[in-house]
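WARN retry 2 of 3 for item q-0093 after timeout on previous attempt; input resubmitted unchanged.
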Amino acid sequence: MVRDAGAAPTVEEVRLPEVGPGQVRVRIRAAGVCHSDLSMINGTLSPPHPLILGHEAAGEVVEAGAGVTRVTAGAHVALNWSPPCRECWFCTHGEPWLCSVANIAALENGSTLDGAPVYVTLGLGAFAEQVVVPERAVIPVPAELPWESAALLGCAVLTGTGAVRNTAGVRAGDAVLVIGLGGVGLSVVAAARAAGAGPVIAVDVSTAKKALAEAAGATDFLVSGDTLSKEVRRLTGGRGADHAFECVGRAATIRAAWRATRRGGQVTVVGMGPADDMVQLSALDIFSSARTLRASVYGSSDPDNEVPQLARDVLAGALRLDHLVTDRIGLAEIPAAFDRMSRGEGARSVVTF
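OK item q-0093 returned
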C-alpha cells in the first residue's frame, strides 16, 4: 500500500468489505508487478491515497455473493482490471476495451485502513492476500494453468498479444520493431513471431535485455540510440519496419518508432506516458509518410473471450511464458521490484503467496 503521494509502498493490515450481491472474494495466488503500478507512484498518474497497488493477478475464489453465476468457490480465476459493462455505447459497438465505465484508475470498494476508506488500483488492489471484486472482474481459467501464467494473461500477455493481433493486425512476413522490453514488450515480440513476422527487431536501452528478447523470439536486438532508424532500415531492405510497437510511453520513443517505420507503415503505442510529455510531428511528414499512429488500449481485446483462449494456448504449448518471469518475490519486496523496473532490469517480477 502507498499511504501518501511520494511515499514508499509498505505492507499494511487492511480490512476487506463483506462480500455483497454480485461480488466475489478471491485469494490471490500470484500478482505481477506491472509498469502501470509504478505509474501510480512515480508521478505519471495522480491517484488518490491511501492506495492499494496491483492489478495483474490470479487466484482462487473463496466466496461468491448472492446472484453470482460466473464462478463458485474453488474456481481458479484471472483478474480483469478493465471489465466491460456491456451496456455503454463502446461496449455495444464492439469496443469493450474502451468501456465508459471501466478503466477507473483508483476507486473505493469498502476496504478500510484503521477505520478509514482506502482506494484500490484499477478496482482491484491485487497486491494483497485477498480481494473483493465484482463478478465481471474475474475470468475463469483452467485449474491446471500455473498461477503465474494466469496472472500474466490478465495484463502483460493480453496487452502485448492483443496489440499485435487485434490493433495492428500483423501478418506473416511483416517487419516488426518493438521498442521497450518489459513484460508487455516481450509479449509483443512473442506474438509477432507467432504471427510469422520477420524480422522482429527488439530495442531497449539495456544490453541485458538481449537474451530475454531472443528467448521471446526476436531475430535482432538493437540498443536504442540516435542511429536507430538507420539500423532498422539496414535490417528491412532500406524501407523501415512495417509495424513499430512503442512499449515505453514516452514522446521520444514514439518519435523514434515513427522515424523507423516505412512509408505507409503503422506505429502502435502500447506504453502509457504522462499527460505533459507532448509528441511533436511535422504536419508535412504526417501527410507525406502516410504512416498510421494509433494506440492499443488493453490490446483492443475482450478479455472474457481472449484470456480463456490464451490459457488454452499456454496449456497446448503454443504460447510460452517462462521467459517473462525473472523474479519471484513476496509483498515486502515490491519496492525493490519497482527499483529494478525503473533501471530497466529484468522482465516481470511476480509476487507469489
